[in-house]
Write a structure and sequence with these properties.
The protein is α+β, with helices and mostly antiparallel strands and about 110 residues long. About 30% of the residues lie in helices and about 10% in strands. The structure holds iron/sulfur cluster.
Length: about 110
C-alpha cells in the first residue's frame, strides 16, 4: 500500500478526528453533570434515599443514624475535588449531589 491508498487515507482521517470526537463527548458529559443535573430534594431518586441538600435540615428524631457534621463531602462514596460544592455519589446516577447534602446511605469516609 502506498500513501494514497484509500484505507490509509481513511485511517489517517479517523486518527485526526477521533480525539476531537472524544474530547467533545467528554466535555458534554462533564458539562451536563456539572451544570444541569444536580439532585434536588424533590426528585424521586432523592426521596428513595431521603436525601437532603442541606444536612443541617435532617431531623435527627426521624433519622437517628444522623450525626451532626455528617454530609456528602465526608461520605465514603462521594467523589469530588476537595472543597467542590457538588460531586458524584456512588448510588446516585446521572446527577451530582451537594457536598452539604446527606442521605440515609451515608457511610463515613475512613480517616
Ligand atoms: S450516599 Fe453519601 S454522597 Fe451519596 S447522597 Fe448519601 S450521603 Fe451523599
Amino acid at each position: 500500500m502506498n500513501d494514497s491508498h484509500p484505507k490509509l487515507k481513511s485511517r489517517r482521517k479517523f486518527l485526526q478526528v477521533a480525539p476531537v470526537i472524544g474530547m467533545s463527548a467528554l466535555g458534554w458529559t462533564e458539562g451536563a453533570l456539572a451544570q444541569d443535573a444536580i439532585l434536588k430534594d424533590s426528585d424521586p431518586e432523592a426521596a428513595a434515599i431521603e436525601y437532603r441538600t442541606d444536612a443541617a435540615q435532617v431531623d435527627p428524631s426521624k433519622h437517628p443514624k444522623y450525626v451532626a457534621g455528617q454530609n456528602c463531602s465526608n461520605c465514603n462514596i462521594f467523589y469530588a475535588d476537595t472543597g467542590a460544592p457538588t460531586g458524584a455519589c456512588g448510588i446516585v446516577f446521572g446527577k451530582l449531589v451537594a457536598a452539604t447534602g446527606w442521605c440515609t446511605s451515608y457511610e463515613k469516609k475512613p480517616s
